[in-house]
Amino acid sequence: MQQTATATDHPTPPGAEVDYPPEQLLASATDPRGVIGYANQEFCRVAGMPKEDLVGAPHKVVRHPDMPRGLFHLMWARLHAKLPVCTYVKNSTADGGFYWVFATVTPTRDGYLSVRIKPRSDFFDLTRDIYTAMLAEEAGGLPPDKSADWMLGRLAEQGYPDFDAYSLAALDAEFNRREDIDQAAESDLRKIAQLTELMNESDLLVQRIIEIFQQVRGEPINLRILSSRLEGAGVAIGTISKNYETMSSDMYQMIERLRCDETGLLVRMRGALVRAQSLSQIAGLMDLTARQSAVKYDAANRNLGGREILHAQSASLTEISRAAVSEVASLGKLVPDVCRQLRRRINGLDLVKLLCRVESGRMSDVDTGLVGIIQRLEEAHQQTDRHLAALSATAFQIDATSNAL
């Protein structure tokens, strides 16, 4: 049976897991080579190592052999690209025990800064299962890069397209378990949450417009069938069908571009918003770590240098987060223009629909089915126009909310 010891119970039985309270945050900073230059008291206590042994040592001194190499391959790829990393890590203690953390690691001007919290979300169990399977694959000879690919495949099976999507979802889950984040971080995150709701509304409106186009996509075909059935009398209807199909296809492609691949406006806005949220959450954890240190150690003036590192990095991440929110606002300003272009095209489609109505009146003595087609098109145009107006209004709300941050 696996034993568990608290962080104050060192030395622990060999192989025992060291427990520590959720409010405890473990922090360390390294140079670009991974040599530790700062370790807070909580990190030293849980690792069971005095600060003198940690500072100046390579960070791998706390690496546990049960950690898959494929994960570190993914981590270093992101860190070398100057991107943050958020993931679960199993570390070793000085006396042979271990402890789990959810680590947030960010590049700094002088190296890397990590703040770790106790894992408490459902992502933790899933991650441990993946790590166990990765270790088995690596024991069979799978190299780190292939092990990383294997992990990405497993994450994709869980619905996460890449490591970034999974780790940021885990960060959000772990962060939301905390009740001790300071008001400054909460204020930014509340506004980001408002923007997220507005983005969700925008996505829903675009989806509804696309569904309307899909519903009436067959109407030009119906017009062509009608044209062929009426022979000479249906030539005008055939021409109308071609015009409508061309115009509606152009409009459909335009609305799709709002959310297609990485170039769509809404996709880029969503990506910037996700970056803003994750950076704000990491900054909040850093501020909390520094604040806790000040409460515990200020009287003895200890950890002052560490608090300065944490505050400086938090300020830097907050600035980047707010820049990402500004990017959301800038991109959002383009959405009403797209809506105006689409509404002009709706007017063009209305003209085609009017021609249909003229032809329907001309052939009023024939039950052509044209009246039903006209009614369906008219309803589709009205619904699309309403959704475009709502999408434009939502974009203005996004701009106003972003500027308030």
Could you please describe the fold and organization of this structure?
It is a single chain. It is built from 13 helices and seven strands. The protein is of the alpha+beta class and 405 residues long. It folds into two domains: 1-179, PAS domain (Beta-Lactamase, 2-Layer Sandwich); 184-403, Substrate Binding Domain Of Dnak, Chain:A, Domain 2, CATH 1.20.1270. Strands 4-3-7-6-5 form a five-stranded antiparallel sheet, with helices on both faces. α7 (183-216) packs antiparallel against α10 (265-297), α9 runs antiparallel to α12 and α11 runs antiparallel to α13. The model has no long low-confidence stretch (mean pLDDT 86).
Topology:
Blueprint: E1 4-6, E2 17-19, E3 26-30, E4 36-39, H1 41-47, H2 51-54, H3 69-80, E5 85-92, E6 98-107, E7 112-117, H4 123-139, H5 144-157, H6 163-175, H7 183-216, H8 219-230, H9 235-256, H10 265-297, H11 304-332, H12 334-362, H13 370-403
Parallel strand pairs: 1-2
Antiparallel strand pairs: 3-4, 3-7, 5-6, 6-7
Structure in a nutshell:
This protein is an alpha+beta fold and 405 residues long. Helices cover 64% and strands 10% of the residues. A hairpin with a 4-residue loop joins strand 6 (98-107) and strand 7 (112-117).
